Amino acid sequence: MPDQEPNIHPTQSLLTPDGTTALIDVEMIPIVRALWSAGLTTVGCCQDSGEYAEAARNSKPDREPTGHAGYVEYYRGWAWLKMPVLDATALTNALAETSFRRAVTVRWQKGSWRISVPVVHDEESGMQLALYAQIYLPRDQLNGLREVVSQPSFELAKI
Predict the structure, then answer these.
(1) Which residue has the higher pLDDT, 58 or 41?
(2) Which of 42, 94, 136, 158 has the most crowded Cβ, counting Cβ within 10 A?
(3) How far is CA 130 from each of CA 61, 82, 122, 127, rounded to the nearest angstrom?
């Protein structure tokens, strides 16, 4: 049996744009649908990353922990999106022209997003940037983000 991670948030099964199904945390459904409608791809999400990391740590005490205690506390109350780098870049460039400008352009301020692209190792290619960006944003911004992305005037930046 595969190593299953804990599912701590209520989820709903959604049909994705590519015709597969995915379990999505219920609080993430409106923003995920809005992103899909805007032509963007998501490959993972969580409505509370700190809460999830704590549950993952506690579910398997004998393995390497998922997130250290500082991570758990820092990201409690933060949502997480995993998107292809080009889609994350298009989204944040477009958001820089909206009420989310400060959240996506000013680092390390209250309400600012945390976005990273990990460096990963591939046996054939060596070290390289991952194909996916990790976006962390305050959970209380989800409804506002959905409203902005759903506006007819919202346009993705060309990259």
Answers:
(1) 41
(2) 42
(3) 28, 11, 10, 9
